[in-house]
Amino acid sequence: MNRAFVVSCAIVVMLVGASQAGCLSLSNRYRTSLAVQTASDLAYVDDGDPKHRLDIFAPSGAQGAPVVVFVHGGFWRSQDKRYFEPVVGLYGNVGVALADMGIVTVIPSYRLFPQAQSFEEQLDDVAQAVRFTRDHIAVHGGDPNKIVLAGHSAGGHLVAYLGTSPDALTKRGLDQGIVKGTAALSGIYDVLTSANNADPPEDKVTLWDPFFGSDDEKRAASPLAFFGIAPHAPIMLVIGELDFKNCLRDYKNGVAALTPGDVRDPRLSTVFVKGNTHEDMVLEIGTRDDEVGPAVAAFARVVTATH
Predict the structure, then answer these.
(1) What domain range is 42 assigned to?
(2) Residue 11 falls within a domain, yes or no?
(3) What tens digit of pLDDT does each residue of 253-291 get?
(4) What are the DSSP calls for 156-211, one per residue?
(5) Which of 160, 41, 156, 16 is nearest to 92 (CA)?
(6) In CATH, what number is assigned to the domain containing residue 217?
(7) What is the dihedral of CA 287, 291, 294, 296, to 10 degrees?
(8) How far apart are CA 138 and CA 149, in angstroms?
(9) Does the pTM exceed 0.85?
(10) CA distance 258 to 223
C-alpha cells in the first residue's frame, strides 16, 4: 500500500477522532449565527505582531451590552485565538456562543513563551487588549464600563491574576475598577505548587522555572494569594469533575481561600460541571451540553447590572 496514502488516512482519522471526542459532533466546527456580527484581526497593539490581534463577536444591534474579554489557554506556550479552528472551531465558537447569549465577546491572542519571556509580558498583552476594548467596544455595541475577564487554563491564571491583584492593572496604566468581574475556568492559581509537582517533571526545567522564575517569584505569580485578601471584583471559579489534578486542587483551595471560617465571600461564585474534562470546559461551549457558557454569560450580566 502506498505509504503517503497510509499517512494521509492516519492524519484524517486522528483529526476526525479528536473532533468527535472533544466536541461531541462535527457540527461544532465553524459555528455561525445570523444574530452575531464579527470583527476579525483587529490590532490592539500597533506593532505588526500577529499575537497582538483580537476578534470581536457581538450580538446584532447590541447597545450597551456586557463585554467579556476571553483569554485562551495553552500552558502559556501554545494556542491562539483561532487554535485548531478547522477541526474544533476554537475560539470562535466561544465568541459566537456568548454573543448569542447577549454578550459582546473579545478574544485576543497574546505572546507565548518563549517569545514572552515571563508571565508579566503576557499580562502586559492582556491588559493592552482590555485597554483597546475599553476604548473601542462601544462601536461594536458593548459598554466600556461593563467589562468582565474570562479565561481558560493558562488564560484562567492570567485573568485571575489581573482581576484580583491590587496593582496588576494599575501599574499598566488601567484603573483596577475597569474589571467588573473575573470568570476563571480550570485555572492555575498556585504556581509554586504546580511547578513543584510538574507532570511531566521535565516541564519544571523547560517551562515553570524559566517562565516564572524563583520560588519567591512563583509565589508572587500565584493569584491564590490575593483571593479574599485584596479588594477585588467578584470572581467565579469554574471546574470540571474530570479536570487536571492541579486544576482541581487549585479550585478547591481557591474556594477555601474565599470561604474563611466557612463564611463564603459574597464575591465568590462557583460552577462544578459533572463529567467534564479540562478540554470539555471550552469545547462544549455553545453545544447542547454546555453548562459553562450560560454560567459565564449570567455572571457577566449580574456583575455589570449596576453599571
Answers:
(1) 31-303
(2) no
(3) 999 999 998 899 999 999 999 999 999 999 999 999 999
(4) HHHHHHHHH-SSTTGGGT--GGGEEEEEEES----HHHHHHT-SSTTHIIIIIHHH
(5) 41
(6) 3.40.50.1820
(7) -120
(8) 17
(9) yes
(10) 12
